[in-house]
Amino acid sequence: YTLSLPDALPLSVAQAYRQLQIVGTPTAVRERIEALAKRCQADEVMVTTVTHDPAARVRSYQLLSAAFAER
Q1: Would you give the distance in Å from CA 48 to the centre of its chain?
Q2: Separation of alpha carbons 2 and 8, rounded Å
Q3: What 3-state class would DSSP assign to 37?
Q4: Between 46 and 70, whose confidence is greater?
Q5: Would the pTM count as exceeding 0.85?
Q6: Phi, psi of 10 (to 5 degrees)
Q7: Contact 31, 67 (CB under 8 A)
Q8: Residues 6+ away with beta carbon under 8 Å from 51
Q9: Distance between CA atoms of 45 and 41, rounded to whole angstroms?
Q10: Cα torsion at 26, 28, 29, 32 (round to 10°)?
């Protein structure tokens, strides 16, 4: 399936969406989440891993849990 031009997101929208994502090593992700929470004065955060594979999603949460347990 190929998106026709009217259906495609403008590059600026895709780039802005990418800016909202936090990806990287477990430590880097933890640091970015902590910085964002501090900036927003949040008591808690909610994380969503966007992947089709359930095992990959669980692994992502395990890595993040371990990264937060290390601090």
Answers
A1: 7
A2: 9
A3: helix
A4: 46
A5: no
A6: -60, 150
A7: no
A8: 57, 60
A9: 11
A10: 160
